[in-house]
Write a structure and sequence with these properties.
Length: about 450
């Protein structure tokens, strides 16, 4: 068999998850694949499970991560790959049966260096599994067309995860795109993602959800508080790798600093209060230097990001204070919202996507159940999301006219409010536009 895709699965002590992962990979409709499971000397029985799968399927090869570095294990996969395309599946995740086939067909049709699909994150197992659907890009116009990221710099705002797609193996080797081989497993995908985007001639996105990312593995590397500076170190790795490509660096530098801020701000929120000042000071030092030397293009930041960035560049201590104050205020808003919903005659979320499902999960943790989703996307209407029906705006407003309406849409909140109020006669005092991202930060 000549494999069409090489799949690399790094693993370490994932005995509870590796079976579902391997079932999803070996059960692909595209059967012409080779599978390298690169294990960092698991001690919980993971290797035994991998061995058992390997005895039943000769496409599986168990390799050793002798450096105990996820970056090393993924690079080993690039080095050993015999297929024209390369993919990564994390060992606590799983993929749709036709994911690799869909991506492979698209890559062959369009000659793309990278093809990515949609995904969702999930928590729980069995009937209690809760999904949060997510698209790679926010604009419909970014799908089903080839893009050169260095020429369309906003492409760096697409969801960064490396495990969403296929990579042309020859592209990775010829452009020397490698993972940072730092110890452990946290954040090495950042360097690979940025370098592959910067150097790609063609990337292509499809909307279909193909990948399911587990968000509640208690041993996940991103939950390790000892990795305070790993994100900063990944961006230093990127800068060093692109330093010799002046023309390319000049094109992507604005995106580099925007993503540096975005990635580190996300990492900052996951840290304890004792560790946050360490990271904010490092961020302040790096971004202040970039700003002083004219390398920080604030025009590509959105308004909220720009306000936070200005504070951070000026004073890291003030940034810490501002973030803490914002968190306290948001907790107050969440408390106030929950109190309203406890006495409301029903609750409807407008927006059956990533933000809507996150809002449902946040409310569920506050013991608030929603009655329905409403969404203008006709493809979603009639379906269910996490056990809740998705209705059209007309049907939802007819059935739940007296309910409390929560708008979970990042870009069109005011438009939806006007539509509900003017077209469907929902009382404005029964409509609340939610900043779901801010509410989610309260839960971190």
């Amino acid at each position: 068999m000549n494999p069409k895709v090489t799949v690399v699965i790094p693993s370490l002590n994932v005995k509870d998850y590796i079976g579902e992962c391997l079932d999803s990979v070996t059960g692909q409709t595209l059967q012409e694949i080779e599978i390298f499971v690169v294990d960092a000397y698991s001690t919980d029985g993971t290797r035994k499970i991998i061995d058992e799968y390997g005895k039943k399927d000769n496409r599986i090869t168990l390799l050793d991560d002798r450096e105990k570095s996820t970056g090393y294990s993924k690079n080993l996969g690039i080095d050993r790959a015999s297929a024209p395309y390369y993919a990564i599946v994390e060992s606590d995740d799983y993929i749709e049966p036709d994911m690799l086939e869909k991506l492979y067909v698209k890559a062959e049709e369009d000659g793309a260096d990278i093809v990515k699909c949609g995904f969702d994150t999930f928590v729980g197992d069995g009937e209690k599994r809760f999904f949060f659907p997510k698209s790679v890009a926010d604009s419909v116009g970014d799908y089903e067309r080839t893009i050169k990221p260095s020429e369309e710099i906003r492409a760096f705002r697409f969801t960064m995860y490396e495990w969403l797609g296929l990579y042309r193996t020859s592209f990775l080797r010829e452009r020397n795109i490698r993972h940072n081989e730092s110890k452990g497993a946290a954040f090495q995908d950042i360097g690979f993602w940025f370098l592959s985007m910067a150097r790609a001639e063609k990337i292509l996105l499809i909307r279909d959800i193909g990948y399911h990312y587990r968000f509640d593995n208690p041993n996940a590397s991103v939950k390790n508080p000892g990795k305070v500076f790993n994100t900063c170190d990944e961006y230093e790795y990127i800068r060093q790798k692109l330093a010799q490509e002046e023309n390319l660096w000049n094109k992507v530098e604005p995106a580099y600093y925007r993503e540096y801020f975005h990635s580190n701000a996300a990492a900052y929120r996951s840290l304890s209060d004792e560790l946050k000042p360490l990271l904010s000071l490092r961020m302040h030092t790096d971004l202040k230097s970039a700003d002083k030397n004219g390398h920080l293009d604030k025009n590509i930041f959105d308004e909220k990001e720009r306000r936070c960035l200005d504070v951070l560049v000026s004073d890291s201590v003030e940034y810490d204070r501002m973030c803490k104050q914002c968190s306290m205020e948001q907790k107050g808003r969440l408390y106030s919202l929950v109190k309203k919903l406890e006495t409301a005659s029903g609750c409807v979320i407008y927006g059956a996507g990533y933000y809507g499902s996150n809002l449902q999960y946040i409310l569920k943790n506050e013991r608030i159940e929603i009655d329905a989703y409403v969404d203008s996307d006709v493809k979603k209407q009639g379906e269910r999301l996490n056990g809740v029906p998705i209705l059209s705006p007309a049907d939802g407003c007819k059935k739940y006219a007296g309910a409390y309406w929560l708008v979970a849409n990042k870009w069109h909140g005011m438009e939806i409010l006007k539509e509900l109020k003017i077209r469907y006669n929902i009382k404005e005092e029964h409509i609340h536009i939610c900043d779901v991202e801010a509410l989610a930060e309260v839960m971190v």
